[in-house]
Amino acid sequence: MSGRRSRSRQSMSPSITDEQINDLMAKLQAVLPEARLGINHRVSAARVLQETCSYLRSLHREVDDLSERLSELLAMADISGAEAAIIRSLLM
Amino acid sequence: MKSSTRNPNPNPDTPRFGPSKLMVAFRFLRALTLVHRTAPNSSNAARSRRIQRAAFASMAYSAGPRRAWSRALLWRLHFHRARRLCAGRSRAAGVPRRPSTTRSPADELRRLVPGGTGMDYCSLLEETADYIRCLSEQVKLMQSVVDSGGPRGR
Q1: Residues of A in contact with B141 (CB under 8 A)
Q2: What are the sequence ranges of the domains in chain A?
Q3: Does the keyword Transcription apply (chain A) (predicted)?
């Protein structure tokens, strides 16, 4: 995961440095699952953006699918019984 | 109460299930029970839409106003709620309005990230990383609810 923002905030200069872009790209690459881009550092910015879009779309789809499944579960069972189990599993 | 035999988190920067993730979980579960209680006889599609909105809402509320994407989501949720109370239908959060024809990857990203259209390039990249982090956590949370939500004690 990306570290703390320990570096001092740059002043809001109108021109964006390449270094800043590369830094942000690296942070973005870090949150993408490894299978998508490999641990290869030399990935073009365009490729990172493409994979990011594709990953975001798949995450949105997963939220939709899981919402449907949860909706079916709610219809069948009372969720309050499972709440304690979920919280317990999250705490462990 | 609890025995402290489990290992302390090696990385203090990213606690495994820190207070913010528990907050998201509590909010989401509370929203789920509300959906269950207030509309037990609604259609699957309507309930699923409410759950999806609850997912984005709990993400956005837990991130708070410190992030542009969460602000955009919160605004969108309140805006759509107001419209729903006054009028009939409204678009679900996250649905693109027009099919993309020739759009650069950055523009495509702007449409996928809440609030993206108003951001400069650097902010877009930063917000996207944070949004993806929170969104993937939300997916994990929902998955664990599904996993543990099966009928118990048969």
Answers
A1: 90
A2: 17-91
A3: yes
How much is the pLDDT for B136? 93
Residue A84: pLDDT band with limits 50, 70, 90:
low
- Rounded-to-10 torsion of CA A37, A38, A41, A46: -10
Cβ–Cβ < 8 Å for A34, B136: no
The first and second tokens of residue B154, run together, are 């048969």
For this complex, say whether ipTM is above 0.90. Answer: no
Asked if B126's CB is within 8 angstroms of A71's CB, the reply is no
Subunit contact B112:A60, Cβ cutoff 8 A: yes
Distance of alpha carbon A31 from the chain centroid: 5
Q: How many CA atoms lie within 13 A of B16 on its CB side?
A: 9
* CB-based contact B138:A70 (threshold 8 Å): no
Q: Which of residues 1-30 of A touch B (CB under 8 A)?
A: 1-4, 16, 20-21, 24-25, 27-28, 30
